[in-house]
Amino acid sequence: MTTFFGRRLAGAALTALALAACGGSGTNPAEGPEPGEVSDPPNEGVILAEELVHIVERSGLYSLPSDPTQVLTALSTLPDGLGDVIAMHLGRLHPTPDEFTPGMGPLLALLQARANLLLGLGQPVRVLEDTAGGELSILLLPMDATTVIVILPTQVVKANPAAAALPATPIDLSQLTYEVNGNTRTLEQYMQSGSTNAIAFMHNGRFIYDDYQNGFNTNTRAHMWSVTKSVTTALVGIAVSEGLVDSIHDPVTKYIPEATGTVWEGVSVEDLLQMESGTYWVDVPVHQPEELVLMGADYHSNGLFGMTRDEYLLRLTRVSPTGDHYRYNSGDAQMLAWLLENVYARPYAEILSEKIWQPAGMQDDALVMVDRLGNTFASMGLMATPRDMLRFGEIYRNGGRSIDGRQIVPQAWVAASHNYDKANGGGPRGYMWPHWGGEESGNYTAAGYGHQRVSVAPSLNMVGVRFGNDPVDSIAPKEWEAVLTAVGNYLEQGVAQ
Predict the structure, then answer these.
(1) Are 195 and 185 in contact (CB under 8 A)?
(2) pLDDT tens for residues 107-118?
(3) Which of 324, 340, 354, 467 has the smallest CB count inside 10 Å?
(4) How would you class 5 by CB atoms within 10 Å of its CB: exposed for 0-12, middle for 13-18, buried for 19 or more?
(5) Which residues are 456's β-sheet partners?
(6) CA angle (340, 86, 57) in 5-degree steps
(7) Integer CA distances (angstroms), 238 to 42, 59, 365, 421, in order
(8) Coil, strand or helix at 24
(9) Is-contact 386 463, C-beta < 8 A?
């Protein structure tokens, strides 16, 4: 008891000191504004200072099992658990012709490609050119370390064994030019930057062009990072259409009763879809790495230390009333995955396989990252090939239908997914599909860390996929949009821009 109160007093002292340093005091979001009013945005410095206490609690007190029976079970099954851990790591690092490990091309091919880029001087010159233009850019790392996560296991999303190849009208676009920051470059030069692993395009439902770098090839699965969120919201739309979710206005606790009485009380499914739950989340450098480390610790210790996905989500904190403010929030996407697993009573990988991957004719098995209990991360962790991500983007461009005309995602859900009009039920990023090329263009994209993109361009009858490894290159988003626009205009008009 003394230890417990000691922790609480220490936490209170830390909070007081942190708030003093920020020059303010915390607010109680539960108090909220008057009815019909929107609360003021939280003070970011204050809420970050307050969160330091909760980080300490999550990584210490709450990461230790409180049930003696749970401890005994974990200890008794520890040998089997360690065997699973060893098998996972050995399986991950077993090289294939297409992958050194999921998310990375064959190691030798990767190193050869990096050496060629550096020794050919094109990549260093490109970095200097971008830097001189005011962009932040870096030289290549010897290994593509940022696109692979090896601390957690994966489950297989089974593809359609009878899937047909994409209908194709190949066109060589390597010498097509585009402009960015006053520089004219070709698509071939775009790939020589080394910051792009793969690009691929479809136009009017037909495959047109792809290109690869850094050891990637057509069969290499990339880690899609937060593109996974857009896949998750698609599955929610299917669940709604099948009657498993009665309404997106329902409280999420209706479908996740385990969240009753927690920070998620009062949050609707729509709040999650639009990232307006009011819970606190700072992707990097706070919550995403913290959760990954705690989930990894839980997996490797067989539950003796750390947290599962669900345990972590239930320990998050609230910083504003639900529905008042948009905040980029991976926790909201993970709650949607939890909802899906509950309403379908199956693992996320099986749901994705049955509802999208197989009926849409995906050719390659995908992977999703899971915790020790098999719960899918789902705000990131999907690993898939370029042609299958093209198929996914084409579903949205085609009003929810697959290439063979089968309705996969409800048409109305596709439209709602890129509705940004708050007055008409939209959100700042739709249902985790932000716009590109200006909201008025009607174009939108699934976006992930390292500038992963599945970009849908109805205005150009095109879908473009980019697998990247440039988390800090500031030119990456606008250069990709320049490439998309040039390719789309060329294919639509037959005139290089």
Answers:
(1) no
(2) 889 889 988 998
(3) 354
(4) exposed
(5) 444, 463
(6) 60
(7) 34, 36, 21, 22
(8) coil
(9) no
What is the average pLDDT score of the chain?
89
DSSP lists the bridge partners of residue 463 as 202, 456
Task: pLDDT band for 68, please (50, 70, 90 cuts).
Answer: confident
Evaluate whether 357 touches 366 at the Cβ level (below 8 Å).
yes
Q: What are phi and psi of 378, to 5 degrees?
A: 70, -10
Report the pLDDT value the prediction gives residue 95, as an integer from 0 to 100: 65
Instruction: Tell me what pLDDT residue 5 has.
Output: 34
CA distance 175 to 173: 6
Q: Give residue 103's pLDDT band: very low, low, confident or very high (50, 70, 90).
A: confident
Model pTM? Answer: 0.91
**Six token digits for residue 418:** 């890129």
> What tokens were used for 93?
């690092």
Rounded to whole angstroms, what are the CA distances from 370 to 130, 149, 424, 467? 38, 11, 36, 22
Give dist(CA 132, CA 359) in Å, integer: 48
- Cα separation, 108 vs 217, whole angstroms: 13
The end-to-end CA distance of the chain, in Å, is: 71
Q: Would you call the peptide bond into 65 cis, given omega within 30 degrees of 0 as the criterion?
A: no
> Which has the closest alpha carbon to 364: 160, 213, 206, 67?
160
SS3 percent helix, strand, coil of the chain, rounded to 5, is 45, 15, 45
Instruction: Tell me the HSE value of 101 on the side-chain side, using a 13 A CA sphere.
Output: 18
Reported as a single tens digit per residue, the pLDDT across 333-342 is 999 999 999 9
Q: What is the pLDDT of residue 38?
A: 83
Write out the E strands in 58-186. Answer: 154-157, 177-180, 183-186
CB burial of 404-430 (b: ≥16 within 10 Å; e: otherwise) equals: eeeebbbeebbebbbbbeeeeebbebb
pLDDT band at 496 (very low <50, low <70, confident <90, very high): very low
Closest-CA residue to 143 (of 89, 80, 101, 187): 101
Could you give the CA distance from residue 416 to residue 424 in angstroms, rounded to a whole number?
10
The position carrying tokens 């969240």 is 259
Count of residues making up the chain = 497
Q: Give residue 385's pLDDT band: very low, low, confident or very high (50, 70, 90).
A: very high
What structural domains and CATH numbers belong to the chain? 154-495 (3.40.710.10)
Helices (H), 405-466: 411-417
In whole angstroms, give the CA distance from residue 15 to residue 81: 38
Q: Write out 236-296 in H/E/C secondary structure.
A: HHHHHHCCCCCCCCCEHHHCCHHHCCCCCCCCEHHHHHCCCCCECCCHHHHHHHHHHHHHH
